[in-house]
Amino acid sequence: MLIKTRNLTKIYPHNDGAVHAINNLSFDIPKGSFVTVTGASGSGKTTLLLILGGLLHPSSGTMVYNGKALNMQKDDVMANFRSNHVGFVMQSFALISYLTAVENIMIALNVRNKNKAEARKQAIELLDWVGLNDRINHYPKELSAGQQQRVAIARALANSPDLLLADEPTGNLDPGLSEEILGILKVINENHNTTVIMVTHSPIAASFGNITISLENGQIKTNNQSKYEEIFQLTH
Ligand SMILES: Nc1ncnc2c1ncn2[C@@H]1O[C@H](COP(=O)(O)OP(=O)(O)O)[C@@H](O)[C@H]1O
Ligand SMILES: [Mg+2]
């Protein structure tokens, strides 16, 4: 198993009352899966993704990645985990507006201590791979939404992640562009054996996955549970 969670819980403290965003989630994700996470707004999808990507500590419960428990680790351990294993793709692309496409990817590569020429060469290869070799020196505002999301995907691949996390990556795209982006994620999953976990509202997007985690109030939706237990052979 690439990921095992047991009784994962996240409570956000708040003056108006604590929010149980994630409530006792236990599941296993085999390496190489394409997991889709669905559920209404506020059901805990983003919170779950942030915990799985090592950006947020759970309040309780465990998350084990490749046999290593990651909860309660120090910030530098989590930072290493992210830079060695995880790529993130966000709905809003999160590109740096004053950097060109190639530069946006180079900064992700430079974290790995490459020299500039080498980083540029690799960044161009990544842009080429997502079909943007003619947009290398364009700024984000000079790119269409679909092209910006491709740059964001290329950037997410910069550290050769074995886990790619995508939070509503097609949320800002029309149906045609969405399918293109989903197709790219599918190829990454199938050709590189990268485990993909994608949050989505769209049933079409959800059908791209081979495992679905359906959330309701931070818990796995009950009508989903029997199928889910079958897949993961969970023992409660
Ligand atoms: N930083 C926070 N502080 C307090 N409550 C939060 C915070 N982030 C999210 N929440 C609450 O946690 C719940 C789950 O949020 P989220 O994981 O963003 O859901 P989703 O991505 O499914 O829309 C929501 O009720 C939200 O209001
Ligand atoms: Mg969300």
Provide structural commentary.
It is a single chain. By secondary structure, this protein is of the alpha/beta class. It has a single domain (3-232), classed as Rossmann fold (3-Layer(aba) Sandwich), CATH 3.40.50.300. It contains eight helices and ten strands. The chain has helices at residues 45-52, 75-85, 101-110, 116-129, 145-156, 175-192, 203-206, 222-232, and strands spanning 3-12, 19-29, 34-39, 60-65, 68-69, 86-90, 163-167, 195-199, 211-216, 219-220. Strands 6-7-8-3-9-10 form a six-stranded mixed β-sheet, with helices on both faces. It has a four-stranded antiparallel β-sheet with strand order 2-1-4-5, with helices on one face. Helix 4 packs across helix 5 (145-156) and helix 5 (145-156) runs parallel beside helix 6. The chain is globular. Residues 12, 14, 19, 21, 39, 41-47 line the site of adenosine-5'-diphosphate.
The beta-strand count equals 10
Bound molecules: adenosine-5'-diphosphate, magnesium ion
CATH topology (fold) name:
Rossmann fold
In N-to-C order, the SSE pattern is EEEHEEHEHHHEHEHEEH
CATH superfamily label: P-loop containing nucleotide triphosphate hydrolases
Q: Which regions are unreliable across 5 or more consecutive residues at pLDDT < 50?
A: none
Give the oligomeric state of the chains in this entry, treating copies of one chain as homo and distinct chains as hetero. Answer: single chain
The amount of helix comes to: 25-40%
The gross shape turns out to be globular
Number of helices: 8
Distance between the termini: 17 Å
Count of domains = 1
* Arrangement of strands in the largest sheet: 6-7-8-3-9-10
On the 0-100 scale, what is the average pLDDT? 90
CA-based gyration radius: 18 Å
